[in-house]
Amino acid sequence: MAWLLLGARIGLIGVERLLLKALGRGASAAAATFLFFALGAAALTPWGLAQPLAPPARAAAVMSGLVFSVAFLFYLRSLALDELSRVAPLGGLADVFTLALAAALDAAPVGAAQALGTLLILGGVAALEGAGWRGLMGLARRRSGVYMVAYAALLAAERLIDQRGGAGAPPVAYTWTMFTTVTAALAAWLTARGGWGATVALLRRRPLPALGSAATNVGSYAALVALLDEFPVTVLEPVTSLSLLVSAYLGRAVYGERLRGRILPALAVAAGSALVLWR
């Protein structure tokens, strides 16, 4: 059962990227992000209210939500601008940024496995452009690449907040609080910028991507909660990176994106994540 849930999580995250790309193409990133989190928060509300959070955990969840609301805007914009199989692996840099933050703030040791993992992630991303390290720099300079690198850096900060403030907290309540924080922050942004009309229009125009992405988000999270008792996070995160392959194949099937030469780099990113997180 645990392996089935793990496979479901990998598949759901792979499909989620495709749905987010469909939702965000040519649309306001704030409107698309609001729909993604608001619908997910609504689905989790009964369970979120049933599990109260201690004040320190609630404060961490709110801070995490504020950071992640900005991070996800970058993420969604990147997916909307470029091919899934090209920019999605750049998100693997979050593991490198996480390692760097842990080393800087907690004096966490960086061993040979972490160094090799970093090289595999960077090498895998560089191979996506087919021009080695020059290709990596070229990808990082593209707007889509800049957005994904910004997302990875902010995601690493959000992970650190979760590790320090969310440890031992009820996971559903913590996630619901984070989701509602993102929703509230983006609601304030949309109100200030007069973006509600575009948000409602986006929901009417693309109801299936909006509802589908929110459903995959809740489903992948539910699978994660169930799997935390079966596998350590240091196993779950790298294995979940295999969702990059699902996204690559779906990008090929739906959008006609190039697939050749991008499978091995995606596997290299997944292997690199495993080494970076190795403890």
Please, could you describe this protein's structure?
The chain is mainly α and about 280 residues long. Helix content is about 80%, strand content about 0%. It has one domain (about 1-275). The chain contains 14 helices and no strands.
Helical segment count = 14
Number of strands: 0
Secondary structural class: mainly alpha
State the domain count: 1
Instruction: Please state the average pLDDT score.
Output: 81
Low-confidence stretches: none
Order of helices and strands: HHHHHHHHHHHHHH
Summarize the amount of helix as a percent range: over 70%
Largest sheet: none
**Mass-distribution shape:** globular
From the alpha-carbon coordinates, what is the Rg to the nearest angstrom? 18 Å
Amino-to-carboxy terminus distance? 26 Å
Strand content: under 5%
Task: Write out key terms for the chains shown.
about 0% strand, about 280 residues, 14 helices, mainly alpha, single chain
